[in-house]
Amino acid sequence: MTQQLSDRRLDTLAAEYVLGTLDADTRVKLQRLMITSDRARQAVWRWERDLNALGASLNDVHPGPDLWQRIEARLGLASETTADSFEQKHRRPSRLGSGRGWNPFQSWVWPAIAAALVLVMVSWNTWQVPQPAPTQVAVIQDASARALWSVSLTEQNLVVTSTREVTPSTDRDYQLWLVAADGRAPVSLGLLPETGQRQLARSVLFDTATVDVLAVSREPEGGSPTGQPTEVLYSAQLVRQ
């Protein structure tokens, strides 16, 4: 699929993905593509890096001390006494005149603006937090070549993302293992998410040993009772970026 996308089209999709303007269906399709396509992952990471750098270069703008009170009042979240006090303090003469009755436009526009402002503030703060770039990645697939998990190794941790192909279990867990090339026993890296994303601790073996593969086993609920894989299902190699 990724070969059918031109570099320009893929770059546009990656930009809209990072900005959060893609429609839901296209966003899901691009997320799936990122699991198996280096081109797609690199396009998204490039936009994240550049936009994070742009955000970090801007000067901080601190809101006024009464901003939160104004938002609460507009959304109807403030206490009645606080809201009355706020309205009296900030009330302005209406251009439509006080004798024209209820204005339906004013009844919804200010709550909508306030809600949008809250969303922008939260998104802006999240956007400016730089995300660690992966140094190595792996895609764990089943026998039918369906992608189940993507594993990104960063300098701080392991970020594991599950796909919709993972079948959740009520009495079993999936466990991730590091298999070193020197023949030592597999080392547990933690339990894998069956939905969504999970961060796992980065083992020092990634820096001190040659990693052969990552393996996934099926274990009793809570993980391997013996400290070793019980039933190995899948394996994948880490690929350096």
Q: Could you characterize the architecture of this molecule?
A:
The chain is an alpha+beta fold and 241 residues long. It has 3 domains: 2-57, no CATH class; 67-127, no CATH class; 136-240, Sandwich (Immunoglobulin-like), CATH 2.60.40. It has 7 helices and 9 strands, in the order ααααααββββββαβββ. The strands form 2 sheets. A 5-stranded antiparallel beta sheet has the order 6-3-2-1-9, with helices on one face. It has a 4-stranded antiparallel beta sheet with strand order 5-4-7-8, with no helix packed on it. Helix 4 (67-75) packs across helix 5. The longest helix has 24 residues, at 104-127. It starts with 6 loop residues before the first helix and ends with a strand.
The major sheet is characterized as:
5 strands, antiparallel
| CATH architecture annotation name of the largest domain | Sandwich
Name the helix and strand elements from N-terminus to C-terminus, one letter apiece. HHHHHHEEEEEEHEEE
Number of strands: 9
State the gist of this model.
The protein has 241 residues and is an alpha+beta fold. The protein is 39% helix and 23% strand.
